[in-house]
Amino acid sequence: MPMANAAIATPPILREGDRLTSAEFLQRWEAMPDLKLAELIDGVVFMPSPVGLSHATVVSNINAWLWLYKDATPGCQSTSDATWVMGPTDVPQPDAVLRVLPEHGGHSGEAGGYGKGAPELIVEVSGSTLSRDLGIKLELYRKAGVREYITILLKPQRVIWRELSRGRYRDIDPSEDGLLRAHYFPGLWLDPQALWDPKQSLRPAIEQGIQTPGHAAFVRRLAKPRRRK
Q1: What's the rounded Cα separation, in Å, for the pair 210 and 199?
Q2: Which member of 59, 107, 140, 150 has the lowest number of beta carbons within 10 Å of its beta carbon?
Q3: Torsions phi, psi of 19, nearest 5?
Q4: Please, what is the end-to-end C-alpha distance for the chain in angstroms?
Q5: Which residues are CB-neighbours of 79 under 8 A, at least 6 positions away?
Q6: Per-position pLDDT tens, the chain of length 229
Q7: Which residue segments constitute the domains of the chain, with CATH numbers given?
Q8: Closest C-alpha to 161, from 204, 190, 193
Q9: Sheet strands side by side (includes 109-111)
């Protein structure tokens, strides 16, 4: 019977706590077109939880901030809520990503319409996912080789910016002016106070950063032809 065969061929739905491989996870997810957010971390499925207004506001601001940098830095790409296949049992969905495109020397790629490998910078906004973002996801991004990992804590309000150094993450501290500055992406500057104050903007710090000689040199480096391996 055609109907019976179709029913048998349909993969099981994703459930919180399922233990799957990346291939199994993606197969089940693709069979659930109404599901927009889900992750597989260390072989365990995590389903979405309700998102509060403060979380959504910070994510929106961070993605606008990364877009401003990307727009001034040809060869870079920013994404929001994209799925990344990072290994046989890991398929995270970061809140925001900034990467160098592979044709410009970046380390990540694309497979089946999904991101593949480790983008250079990941941002997670942490409310209900705090323990995950500071635990198994931090370890995943470290092992995958994500160069810089920003965790934005909603309670208490705090920005933790880490840089991968000799296989370990170390904190990047604010400069004397209070700004946080990326090490891998010259000119990517963040005013953490502007994240929490609706009267302030993230734009001035970015505009200062992209006017620096370091950013100009980075743009020239990205513009050089790269051989694809």
Answers
A1: 23
A2: 107
A3: -110, 115
A4: 49
A5: 96, 97, 99, 115
A6: 454 454 456 889 999 999 999 999 999 999 998 998 999 999 999 998 878 899 999 999 999 999 999 999 999 999 999 999 999 999 999 999 999 999 999 999 999 999 999 999 999 999 888 888 999 999 999 999 999 999 999 999 999 999 999 999 999 999 999 999 999 999 999 999 999 998 999 999 999 999 999 999 999 999 986 655 4
A7: 11-221 (3.90.1570.10)
A8: 190
A9: 84-85, 114-116, 109-111
Tokens matching residue 154: 């909603």
